[in-house]
Amino acid sequence: MRQQLFFSPTMRDVPSDAEAMSHQLMLRAGLMRQTASGIYSYLPLGLRMIQKIQTIIREEMNAAGAQELLMPAIQPSELWEESGRLGDYGPELMRLNDRHDREFVLGPTHEEVITTLVRDGIASYKRLPVNLYQIQTKYRDERRPRFGLLRGREFIMKDAYSFSVSDDELNETYESMYKTYERIFKRCGLDFRAVKADGGAISGSAGETHEFQALAAIGEDTIAYSDASTFAANIEIAATAAPTDEEIGVEQDLKEISADNLAAAVSGNSIELRNTLFFVDEKPVLVVSKAEDTISDVKLSGHFKTLAVQEASSKEVEALFGVEQAYVGPLHADEGLTIVVDHGLTHVKNATTGANAQGQYVTNVSISRDLADADIVDLRMIKEGDASPDGVGTIQFAQGIEVGQVFKLGTKYSEVLKAEVLDENGRSQPLKMGCYGIGVSRTLAAIIEQHHDENGIVWPQEVTPFDLHLLVLNAKADEQVELSEKLYETLQQDGYDVLYDDRKERAGVKFKDSDLFGLPLRIAVGKRASEGIVEVKERKTGVVHEVHVDELAAFLKR
Questions:
Q1: I want to staple 94 with a disulfide (CB 3.0 to 4.6 A). Which of 106, 235, 377, 474 is the partner?
Q2: Burial degree of 136 (CB within 10 A; 0-12, 13-18, 19+)
Q3: Exposed, middle or buried: residue 334 (CB in 10 Å: 0-12, 13-18, 19+)?
Q4: Which residues are paired to 540 by β-bridges?
Q5: pLDDT along the chain (558 residues), means of 10
Q6: What is the rounded CA–CA span in Å between residue 441 and residue 404?
Q7: CA triplet 543, 547, 549: central angle to 5 degrees?
Q8: What is said about its interaction partners and assembly (predicted)?
Q9: Residues linked to residue 521 through DSSP beta bridges, in sequence order
Q10: Which domains does the chain carry?
């Protein structure tokens, strides 16, 4: 491609509203331009990158036995009502009405559509398992789009859906997709971790799920991992190590104290309890934990197998208990209140908590004695320095960008949408489903987040938009132009994808743009063109080689 004709408008200044480095560099290098908040046009250079990633995905998905199709972006809302997700998905679901006032949604995902397709197309287990995928634009009405392609309202996604007749078949496909994703992200040059995660509105608590997180400081997800084992999980669902059997303190009689005496009680051996009110499916649930711990609403959601979990406001707390938050406690509460205790308190015997009376506390609380009817559940957020749940090493944190996720959906969608087949015994069985997504545009941003320097992008070899960047440094020097034109033809004949900077620009401008574009090798034809000598620069290392054109083919192969 001749750069004189290539639509790649670069920018010298960093856009003021671009916080993420990938956002800055994609704008500066002319990969994309903003059309509206969270919505971007991909320019030729950016589209080439998207296509490179898509090619890797297609090669690996096809090799794993998946089949590509294409479903509509616009979906009838009746399908989402039938699955029960129309209300659950929340305000991020984009909706629209046609001229006949029929309601549709712009698909953020396609479980409903694919399930009905397979329901109407497969009746027997003999045609299973099957794994179908598409690469398509998705939509999400983000309240605050930010970080360019990392959190937008329109994004490109690969979503796959598997259908099986048995759990064993589902497990095999899930494992196959897990390994396929590892290959895809390795080929994209990403430093990533596969971590246990929450299924959210896709699978809820229906089954196992893993996220693939590209490590990056700008990442919005926090990953908890062991410094001595393979354990890794999203901080929201990371299990915490079970408490030991050692009992804390000696059981004593309950005693009420005033707020004035609280400091003295807590400064002794007493453990201060935190009591957090949640509404779960609109019913009040009081979660009891250590005061220094934070409760994961995702874990709470998983325990109650619902997505409808909301922490109560201070006004709601006062309305229910009749006291300020500080004086709320689990003892002598209303019978209709569900109480759940974090498992870190299992053996505690001398805790202090609110007495459900203004200005009053209760001390010497024994969990096994005084809260014997409460559920004991792992609900707290894991912390750096905690023992790893697998018993090996301690927990460290890292930030990650979620670039992919694999889910076991089970029968969550097939049951409500009546997607069934006859098994080998002639009995009707709901299909066992899996779902496997990759954020294509987000993967592009993640690659740039991990592969750049102060001068621009540094593309990994397999996803570079062009193999070589050929520069003629003086477009008015006949010998430079002649050699450059000859090399441009020869290099393409040798199978290289070449971006040829034939613009009538100063050498300094060309060098800056070349560093910004970040192609792996730059071939500069300059003052020694008459000798047949060119400069070859390695973008990643900055090392420059002087090479005679007769030796260039062999040099590039090496």
A1: 106
A2: middle
A3: exposed
A4: none
A5: 95 87 96 96 97 98 98 96 89 95 96 97 95 97 93 97 96 97 98 85 64 95 92 91 70 88 74 93 94 93 88 94 93 86 91 92 91 93 93 94 96 95 93 97 98 97 96 96 97 97 96 97 97 97 97 94
A6: 11
A7: 145
A8: Homodimer.
A9: 468, 538
A10: 21-239+396-449 (3.30.930.10), 255-377 (3.90.960.10), 466-557 (3.40.50.800)
555's tokens: 């040099």
520, two tokens: 């792996």
By the 8 A CB rule, do 132 and 437 touch?
no
Query: pTM here?
Result: 0.88
Instruction: Count the Cβ atoms, other than its own, within 10 Å of residue 390.
Output: 13
Give the span between the Cα atoms of 411 and 415, in whole angstroms. Answer: 6
Residue pLDDT, tens place only, 361-415: 999 999 999 999 899 999 999 999 999 999 999 999 999 999 999 999 999 999 9
- Cα distance between residue 152 and residue 227, in whole Å: 33
Decide: 315 and 279 in contact? Cβ < 8 Å. Answer: no
Q: Which residue has the tokens 């015994």?
A: 425
Concatenate the DSSP letters of all residues of 324-386 into one string: -GGG--STT--TT-EEEEEGGGTTB-SEEEE-SSTTEEEEEE-HHHHTTTSEEE--BPP-TTS
Q: CA 128, 130, 133: angle at the middle one, nearest 5?
A: 170
Q: Any idea what DSSP says for residue 36? A: E
DSSP symbols for 295-335: B-HHHHHHHHT-S-EEEPPHHHHHHHHSS-GGG--STT--T
Tokens of 62: 């096809």
Nearest Cα residue to 399 out of 437, 360, 345, 446:
446
Residues in the chain: 558
Count of helices and strands (H, E) across the chain: 16, 31
Q: What is the pLDDT of residues 525-539, one digit of tens each?
A: 999 999 999 999 999
